Amino acid sequence: MKFYLIAASIFGLDEFVKRRAERRSADADRTVFHDKIILRNHHNKGICLNLFDRKQVFVTVVSALLTSAIGVRIFLLRKDEAQEVYKFGLSLALGGALSNTWDRIHRKYVVDYFSFNSKCSKFRDIVFNLSDLFLFAGAFLAVIGRKD
User: Fold this and answer.
1) CA 142 → CA 78, 83, 90, 131, distances in Å?
2) What share of the chain is helix, strand, coil (3-state, %, to 5)?
3) pLDDT of 30-46, one tens digit each?
4) Measured distance CA(114)–CA(104) in Å, rounded
5) Which of 98, 104, 102, 97 is nearest to 136 (CA)?
6) How many structural domains comprise the chain?
């Protein structure tokens, strides 16, 4: 149960931030955190870097299926105490996946709202949300924490 609460907390936090980001003007980028983070308002209709942005239904269905699979996997491992790091990683990924899938279903796009202020313009142009970071971190922890 605690892993679903972690996922729900991530969903709630990111949804809160996304709503605030949606209220900002789309052309009002500003830097914060000692000019390391650029706050933006970007709508991603596809997946990473707007890939498959013309196949929104496909992306939404795949996103919902993968999100469901993560939730089921956590449920199936609920009594396996040797897999705590793995389940924690899955819960972080589930929270991020839930938030982005929710966006795809209800908004028809994913709200992304920050970039890293890098000297590399290609990296600086990539816009993220907190869910993306939790997905990456969760996938990493799930990979290193899985015990077969």
Assistant:
1) 15, 9, 6, 16
2) 60, 15, 25
3) 778 878 899 988 898 88
4) 18
5) 97
6) 1
Cα separation, 86 vs 144, in Å, equals 8
CA distance 41 to 50: 14
Token digits for 50? 């707007």
Q: Which residues contact 62 (CB under 8 A, 6 or more apart)?
A: none
pTM value? Answer: 0.89
Of the chain, the percentage scoring pLDDT greater than 90 comes to 65
Q: What sign for the dihedral angle of Cα 81, 84, 88, 89?
A: negative
pLDDT at residue 23, as a whole number: 84
> Whole domain around residue 26: which residue ranges?
2-145
Kindly give the parts of the chain with pLDDT less than 50.
Answer: none
> How far separated are the first and last CA of the chain, in Å rounded?
22
